[in-house]
Design brief:
This protein is an alpha/beta fold. It has two domains: 51 residues; 388 residues, Alpha-Beta Barrel (TIM Barrel), CATH 3.20.20. The chain has an eight-stranded parallel β-sheet, covered by helices on one side. α11 links the parallel β15 and β16. The protein starts with a strand and ends in a 9-residue tail after the last helix. It binds zinc ion. The site of zinc ion (ZN) has 8 residues, from loops.
Length: 447
């Protein structure tokens, strides 16, 4: 983008620079925001009148499912998701369709319409990376990147089993480079490999079949490699046992493994041609906290475990989370955690797709509807908001719906309304099953 743009008289919000709604002008020169423009440029540039409007930095969605084979499976297996939500071709736009799993064109327009400029695909299987890039490339307007699934990779597990961290790091470095991915993803470590045998793992110290490696060893190894290579972001973790009563304990124990791991800071990574952000001080990104925060022991005594996890995160500085909010309504569950989706299939009987990616992992896809009348769904709504409201430092949190798992990303404005308005939360509590209030702390949040 060349030339200059002046965005005039908007209410500017920029948390990094502590600008909170001041009326000011924003100058853009050759695609970059600058503090001022030469006088000559001020006469010739493009002017945008933002009077009465909010001007903010572009939104970044750090965890969404928007490209690749499992997303496409979601599109293909859900015609009912597509004929209800369509956009027509215009002289500027492509046509598109899809509500929870939109087509590539529609998802680019929908994100841009909300002010988002960057979206990360949360799970790329290496063998499917080429297709994923094709879809990211075809998605208009927003910049995209993705995280490479390495938590159940045959070579990874073998090198870590042999305690050969050098070889494992060289392998990850080569994989990140050849597959053009941005972060290291770890989904149900050791468990998805067991799913190839119809099994899972249930504790951090249970070794899996054949590779004889435990989730704890994989989490620790991948994190060590992540810092050894000086990756731009912390290890992206989808903890074991996700979505099951009591799973918050394994999530908390997983976070403890990475307490004390020193993030490599302020380092130039030459192969990637990037300058590291010197501010990174987190060693782990726990994805969609809500799905990792179920308390209780069985479905009947289920309760929110967010308070315990938020308490831990409030006292530590090595964790950043995204929320995985549930705004009610239609969703499509899709994850690299194949056994987790199978368990939802057994509960709901909804149509279900499962996939095993040779030597790398797998995935599951299943349509899902969250209802205010359902006790568990109501509690999940409350828990998603707790994830963002009970953690004191907002810089440790990122708002998501784990789109489309908790609901589509187009519901973000409604999630923001619940976060900003105690009255709106109270109103929704009154419309929900009583578990929302009785089994979470959401009713007592004044924030
Ligand atoms: Zn996800």
């Amino acid at each position: 983008m060349t030339g200059t743009i002046v965005i005039k008289n908007g209410y500017v919000f920029d948390p990094l620079n502590e600008i909170k709604g001041e009326i000011m002008d924003i100058f853009v020169q050759d695609g970059k925001v600058v503090t001022e423009l030469p006088a000559a440029e001020l006469k010739t540039g493009t002017f945008i009148d933002a009077c009465g409007m909010t001007v903010m930095p572009g939104g970044v969605d750090s965890h969404s499912h928007v490209a690749g084979s499992k997303v496409n499976v979601g599109r293909v297996m859900r015609p009912e998701d597509h004929y209800k939500a369509t956009i027509q071709k215009t002289s500027l736009l492509h046509s598109g369709s899809g509500y929870t799993v939109p087509s590539v064109y529609k998802q680019g327009y929908d994100y841009a319409a909300m002010g988002y400029t960057t979206v990360f695909e949360a799970a790329i299987s290496p063998l499917e990376a080429r297709h994923t890039h094709e879809e990211m490339h075809a998605t208009p307007i927003v910049d995209m990147g993705g995280y490479l699934e390495l938590g159940n990779n045959f070579f990874m597990m073998r090198y870590l089993r042999e305690d050969d961290i050098e070889k494992a790091a060289a392998y990850v470095s080569w994989m990140m480079n050849t597959h053009k991915t941005y972060g290291v993803k770890c989904v149900n470590p050791a468990g998805v490999e067991n799913w190839g045998w119809g099994k899972n793992v249930s504790s951090l110290d249970e070794a899996n079949i054949h590779f004889e490696i435990t989730p704890r060893e994989i989490i620790k190894g991948l994190s060590e490699i992540n810092e050894r290579l000086g990756m731009p972001m912390p290890l992206h973790l989808h903890a074991n046992n996700l979505g099951h009563p009591g799973c918050y304990t394994i999530a908390k124990e997983s976070l403890k493994i990475l307490d004390g791991i020193k993030p490599k800071q302020n380092m130039d990574v030459e192969w990637a041609k990037i300058k590291m952000d010197p501010a990174r001080n987190r060693s782990v990104y726990l994805a969609h906290l809500m799905f990792n925060s179920f308390g209780g022991t069985i479905w009947a005594d289920l309760k929110s475990g967010v308070k315990e996890l938020a308490g831990y995160i409030n006292n530590k500085d090595h964790v950043v989370i995204d929320s995985g909010c549930v705004p009610f309504g239609e969703a499509t569950a899709m994850t690299g955690d194949g056994p987790a989706i199978y368990d939802i299939y057994k509960l709901t009987g909804n149509k279900w797709s499962n996939k095993d990616v040779e030597m790398e992992g797998g995935s599951g896809v299943l349509p899902f509807t969250y209802l205010k009348s359902n006790p568990v769904h109501s509690m999940q709504w409350a828990m998603g908001l707790e994830c963002l409201l009970l953690i004191n430092d907002p810089w440790k949190t990122i708002m998501t719906t784990d789109s489309p798992n908790g609901g589509p990303f187009t519901k973000y404005p409604e999630v923001i309304t619940w976060l900003m308005s105690e009255a709106y939360r109270k109103q929704t509590i009154s419309e929900c099953h009583k578990w929302a209030n009785d089994r979470s702390g959401i009713g007592g949040v004044r924030r």
